Amino acid sequence: MLKQQPFIPVVLGANIGTYSIVRSFHEAYNVKSISLSKQTAGPIDKSSIIVPMTEKSMGEEDVLLAKLKKIGSMYPDQPKILIGSNDWHIESIVDFHGKLGDDWVIPYVDNQTLQKIIHKTSFYDICEKVGVPYPKYTYLNDDASPGDDVNFSFPVVIKPTDRALYESTDFEGKKKVFICENREELEDVTARLKKAGLHKSVILQEYVPGDDSAMRILTLYVGQDGETKLASYGQVLLEDHTPGGRGNPLAIRTFSNDEVVEHAKKIVEHTGFTGIANFDIKYDQRDGKYKFFELNPRLGRSNYYMTVGGHNPVEYYVEEHLQKREITPVKAENEKLYTVVPKKLLLKYIADSELKKTIKRMFKENKAINPMFNFSVEKSPKRRFYVYASTMNFYKKFKQHPPFEKE
Question: Start and end of every ATP-grasp domain (predicted)?
């Protein structure tokens, strides 16, 4: 089947973001994708649109490169487009420019440009230069203590500046992001970070108040000519609150916001960034500004919100890199709902009454879509069982790890 396709997407990863990318390719071009991961996890298992491949040591760049070359030799006469769904994937992929054959498309910037934007501190320096709002932050010193210039109060957020390094290091009580309510919690976390040798790879950031619905997501596709071809914006309604998934959007309402888009354009134009730029943003009710937290140089875990909103992001990769077409800029404006959690659970955690009415209306108008509910294509009974079971498991997750009451 793959050998009859006009091109082959090769997607690194095995999470829901990986499946969403594969589904988007299938919907746009009726092609199957190869997934490459350390193991075949539930979100991609028994999918009829994925040819799964595994490599336990793919975290080592030379092993990953060899595996990709092997895939290339299996399909030598077809273009292959390489997509990553995690941060460390992208850091590896950008080093493969020129190391894979001409039949491979690597739609990511060079390593120098990448490093400018993926580390929190350099990203905030860029925000400062171009006049984009961002949260206050400071570093830990050699003793893993806050510097003397801390000018914000508890709670404080501790997050990695080098996410690829952070993801590859394990330590006791590890979380994706730490929120410390007091000095005692801060000292406990920083001690663990120092023991793991990570205290120089994190920052302390002010906590911007607001529940999950204060979060925003924006994804741009920036063409090779530097022009923004797509701006897809959304309001996060509910996030994951488990230690390993803290902050991952679980439900997003799509619409548009010109102010946020213009801020994002300043950042990509200043850096010369091209390709997919995925921004994490939070509305700060204290000053009415949208604070930019980070830029992810890839399609995010919840990337299917873009397809739900009517603008399939993989089409931009294919049109520009494979079909060599000129892309007309568009702004996504449709109001749709991306969700991977049950309706009842989502509505339970939406505090704003008007927003809750809006979401109820969207469900009633059939504007809500779950990327995993693809049963017209996916016929496997075992896969169907997994999808339903993993969706209902969110009730257990939120019982164990509910959103913070103070939010």
Answer: 124-322
- List C-alpha distances in Å: 213 to 163, 236, 239, 287, 290: 24, 5, 9, 17, 13
Residue whose structure tokens are 């679980």? 250
Higher pLDDT, 282 or 180: 282
For residue 21, give the amino acid letter: I
User: HSE on the CB side for 314, CA within 13 Å?
Assistant: 31
295 closest CA partner among 201, 220, 200: 220
CB 75 within 8 A of CB 81: no
Which residue is associated with the tokens 């487009």?
81
Give 169-177's long-range contacts (Cβ < 8 A, gap of 24+): 169/196, 169/197, 169/198, 170/196, 171/195, 171/196, 171/198, 174/243, 174/244, 175/243, 175/244, 175/246, 176/243, 176/244, 176/245, 176/246, 176/247, 177/246, 177/247
Q: What sections of 274-352 are H helices per DSSP?
A: 304-308, 314-317, 343-348
DSSP 318: I
Nearest to 276 by CA among 321, 344, 237, 222: 222
pLDDT tens by residue, 82-130? 999 998 899 999 999 999 999 999 999 999 999 889 888 899 999 999 9
**Residue 197, C-beta contacts closer than 8 angstroms, at least 6 positions apart:** 169
Q: How far apart are CA 306 and CA 23, in angstroms?
A: 12
